[in-house]
Design brief:
The chain is an alpha/beta fold and 149 residues long. It has a single domain (25-148), classed as Rossmann fold (3-Layer(aba) Sandwich). The chain is built from 5 helices and 8 strands. The strands form 2 sheets. Strands 2-1-3-7-8 form a 5-stranded parallel sheet, with helices on both faces. A 3-stranded antiparallel sheet has the order 4-5-6. α3 (60-68) packs parallel to α4. The longest helix is centred in the N-terminal third of the chain and has 18 residues, at 4-21.
């Protein structure tokens, strides 16, 4: 009987730790050339779930995958420059015509994101090129990819 109480506490503690380690959260990626950078810095600052893409030595898609590989992400939010049919990071522009070149890197996203990828843009998926890019991104990742301001 004396051991029952400590064992119960340990079981409850282990259950809590296991449950909290399985929680999913949103992950926010901000490219250094994103629009409204000053506003984004003041809003997100140095939060733990925010990754700032800087420099050009490593492809931005790889940077995102590497930064988030140990995290269970529900929604991946990406603040980046865009134009119709193109996601423009500081060191790579992704279009429907070159998306196959980063296919392996994009596949990694399907291992870390459980719900969707949100590109913060009003124009990225507009027009024929935008629709084609959205379709290819969804085919490659198996994720829902949306645009939202």
């Amino acid at each position: 009987m004396d051991l029952l109480k400590p064992i119960l506490v340990i079981v409850l503690l282990c259950s809590f730790v296991h449950a909290s380690s399985q929680s999913y959260s949103d992950f926010i990626v901000i490219d250094e050339i994103a629009e409204d950078m000053a506003e984004l810095k003041s809003e997100y600052g140095n939060q733990a779930n925010v990754y700032w893409i800087v420099g050009t030595s490593v492809n931005a898609i790889n940077q995102i995958s590497t930064a988030a590989e140990a995290i269970q992400i529900e929604n991946l939010h990406i603040y980046v420059s865009t134009k119709p049919g193109a996601i423009v990071f500081n060191n790579i522009a992704i279009t429907s015509e070159n998306v196959n070149e980063v296919e392996n890197e994009l596949l990694a996203w399907s291992n870390i994101v459980s719900s969707k990828v949100v590109i913060h843009s009003e124009v990225v998926f507009t027009g024929e090129e935008g629709a084609r890019l959205k379709r290819r991104l969804e085919e490659i990742t198996g994720l829902i990819i949306i645009a939202q301001k």
